[in-house]
């Protein structure tokens, strides 16, 4: 088939939107056809500061690429000393006028600012809010609005809602910078109400309220909801699940302090038959709730991303089995399509429970199982009563710097064919090409997912768990490791967890509370791909075996024996 035939060009045009800018630059080197198509695809996203936007638009017009722009990433940060106040205001008005007249075809807009949580000077407040309000009114036909990198301080509800002309939004990503208040929550609720007939993705974050949930109940196309850190009640969540649970694909409820077992216990496959991603990190539930969600009588056919960590109240007694072996065995057998599984604070998991997951989940690309959690659930057993004050201060400082957990970006990868082929062999329908497949995480994301270790000793583990002492001054393989202190006794997984084998052949991330020895290394060497390996202890021989099999693998293990 000719490389420039219409059929080939159509196929290439469908592939290029899934590639990054770096990959598009490589595609330009293939031949002339690839170069033209990759250049057009790169030009679809315009990124610029607002005051320099007219020059960028004129550059695109000279190149003949103005009609290809479909999304814009605009920085509205105030540049102090750049121009006088009247000239700066004139530059903003000219930029907005040029955008509204020359780029009416833009459907996606991302507004961002420098990472400051508040507007400081009077000019900064005035011009930033003016730019934001005018920018919102310049695109009445927007389909996607991303404010996740913009400070909520730009929102001035006293001048009226800046979102009054937006009525066709499909995606809303709300503010995550700054301190949200009742005015921003009300603005989000009004925006959801105005776009309820077209809304598909709702990332309300901390501004998600019961009113907003009731507005989403009237959104027939809603698929993704993120209300992490909000004060949504059990009644509002149940109302949303009962009304729109059949169409929800992603539900993020992390750090929702008001949610209890009364609502979480009703998130069953019957209520959410199409759910692909579920995040219950730091939600106030117990073992009974998890056993109700995941048992041998429930089946989650499409669940690909699962994150669990229960928030136990300080008044409650210690609970070591928030997620135990029985729950993990049910997850391994009743969630066959899992791609990502992240478990924190799992003191009740042993080698047997971990082996059931590794031996049953064939599509798994990321596995994080940590006995410890960000909020320490362990008690002092009296061995470490005289702890070092400086070490405690260093530990708490490191823990607070990683308070927010990393989030995943989903993209289509080359593993789609492997997943589909594996699914057909196992008798299950594989994930669709439009499903959620994780991209390889960065090193900073990996450290963000590793919770802090307690500075005090833990209770003596049961006989079926292995407790080992580690050198008090470990030699870390990762410089500037956030794990600065260790307790004297730590539970770790052993090679018995790999005794049943590893069904998945490819791992982007494998982060376990494990002591990797030569037996573990032999099991892992049978994988076809291993990008990042994290753990507690690794022997030098095991390290050499893994480095030989996977020379590009990044190992972040806290101790080397």
TrEMBL record:
GO cellular component: SCF ubiquitin ligase complex
Entry-linked Pfam families: LRR_6
Any single biological process term in GO: SCF-dependent proteasomal ubiquitin-dependent protein catabolic process
Compositionally biased region (Acidic residues): 382-391
Region (Disordered): 377-409
Domain of life: Eukaryota
SMART domains the UniProt entry points to: LRR_CC
Stored SUPFAM superfamilies: F-box domain, RNI-like
PANTHER family tied to this protein: PARTNER OF PAIRED, ISOFORM B-RELATED
Protein name: RNI-like protein
Source organism of the structure: Linderina pennispora
């Amino acid at each position: 088939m000719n490389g420039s035939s219409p059929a080939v060009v159509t196929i290439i045009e469908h592939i290029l939107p899934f590639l990054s800018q770096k990959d598009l630059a490589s595609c330009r080197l293939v031949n002339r056809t690839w170069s033209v198509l990759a250049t057009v695809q790169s030009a679809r996203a315009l990124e610029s500061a607002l005051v320099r936007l007219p020059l960028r638009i004129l550059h695109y017009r000279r190149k003949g690429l103005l009609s290809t722009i479909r999304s814009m990433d605009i920085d509205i940060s105030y540049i102090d000393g750049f121009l006088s106040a009247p000239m700066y205001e004139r530059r903003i008005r000219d930029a907005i006028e040029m955008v509204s007249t020359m780029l009416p075809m833009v459907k996606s807009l991302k507004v961002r600012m420098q990472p400051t949580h508040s507007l400081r000077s009077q000019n900064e407040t005035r011009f930033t809010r003016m730019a934001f309000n005018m920018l919102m009114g310049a695109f009445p036909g927007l389909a996607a609005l991303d404010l996740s990198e913009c400070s909520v301080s730009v929102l001035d509800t006293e001048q009226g809602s800046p979102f009054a002309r937006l009525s066709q939004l499909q995606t809303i990503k709300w503010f995550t910078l700054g301190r949200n208040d009742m005015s921003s929550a009300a603005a989000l609720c009004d925006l959801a109400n105005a776009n309820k007939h077209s809304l598909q993705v709702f990332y309300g974050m901390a501004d998600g309220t019961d009113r907003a949930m009731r507005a989403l109940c009237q959104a027939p196309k809603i698929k993704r909801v993120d209300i992490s850190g909000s004060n949504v009640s059990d009644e509002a969540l149940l109302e949303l699940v009962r009304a729109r649970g059949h169409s929800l694909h992603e539900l993020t409820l992390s750090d929702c302090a008001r949610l209890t077992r009364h609502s979480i216990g009703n998130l069953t496959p019957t209520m959410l038959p199409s759910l692909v991603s579920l995040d219950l990190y730091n939600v106030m539930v117990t073992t009974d709730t998890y056993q109700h969600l995941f048992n041998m009588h429930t089946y989650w056919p499409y669940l690909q991303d699962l994150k669990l960590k229960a928030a136990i109240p300080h008044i409650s007694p210690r609970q070591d089995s928030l997620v135990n072996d029985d729950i993990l065995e049910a997850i391994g057998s009743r969630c066959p399509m899992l791609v990502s599984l992240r478990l924190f604070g799992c003191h009740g998991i042993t080698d047997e429970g971990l082996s059931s997951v590794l031996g049953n989940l064939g599509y798994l690309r990321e596995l994080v199982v940590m006995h410890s959690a960000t909020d320490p659930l362990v008690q002092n057993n009296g061995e470490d009563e005289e702890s070092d004050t400086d070490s405690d201060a260093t530990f708490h400082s490191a823990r607070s710097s990683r308070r927010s957990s990393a989030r995943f970006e989903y993209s289509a990868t080359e593993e789609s064919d492997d997943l589909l082929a594996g699914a057909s062999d196992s008798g299950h329908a594989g994930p669709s090409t439009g499903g959620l497949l994780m991209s390889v995480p960065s090193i900073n994301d990996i450290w963000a997912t590793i919770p802090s270790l307690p500075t005090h000793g833990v209770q003596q583990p049961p006989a079926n768990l292995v407790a080992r002492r580690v050198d008090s001054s470990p030699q870390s393989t990762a410089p500037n490791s956030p794990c600065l202190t260790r307790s004297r006794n730590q539970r770790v997984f052993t090679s018995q967890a790999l005794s049943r084998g590893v069904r998945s052949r490819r791992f982007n991330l494998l982060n376990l509370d494990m002591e990797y020895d030569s037996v573990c290394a032999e099991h892992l060497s049978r994988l076809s791909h291993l990008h990042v390996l994290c753990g507690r202890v690794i022997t030098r021989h095991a390290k050499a075996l893994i480095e030989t099999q996977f020379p590009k693998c990044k190992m972040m293990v806290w101790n080397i024996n």
